[in-house]
Amino acid sequence: MAKLVSKTYGEALFDAAVEDGCVDKLLEDAVFVREAFRDNEDLGKLLNNPKIAREEKAKVVSGIFKDNVSDDMQGLLQLMVVKQRHNDITGALEYFTDRVREYKNIGRAYVTTAQPLSEEQKKAVTDKLLATTKYVEFEMNYNVDKSIIGGIIIRIGDRVFDSSIKSQLDNLTKQLKKIQLGD
What we know:
This protein is of the alpha+beta class. The chain has 8 helices and 4 strands. The protein has a 4-stranded mixed sheet. Helix 2 packs antiparallel against helix 6. The chain is elongated, with a radius of gyration of 22 Å. Belongs to the ATPase delta chain family. GO terms for molecular function: proton-transporting ATP synthase activity, rotational mechanism.
């Protein structure tokens, strides 16, 4: 249910952003609000306090964000607080951010290697991804995992390219087990 709520509000914000031509501004607002919620646990505690009236919570949220975000973002926050959907705010903003990335053809890639990549290697990976996908830009996330032994694993959305030595050894092991069982 929470994902449906986040999707509904996030999609409404995205539609409004495209219609009003303020996608970039609302994206900045979304990043700001998500960071504010992440960095301030007391805000979440206040919004979850059943002894505080919804209207009072809405005033607090308005006071915190009024000089830092657009009226559209203020409206979304107010609506979600009054409708008691405050626990879904970060989810809705995350959904919105993902939709904006999709709209602007910005991919998000997660790259895992056994050793840290040099800047030159990172650029080569990014260039290859730009050349072989529909995306015009990438947000790259690098991770080092020595257990893959060597090679590279790239995840973009639900697609995975795995050329790690660990994966190749696992596949070889499965093939050898099939051969042994066949005798």
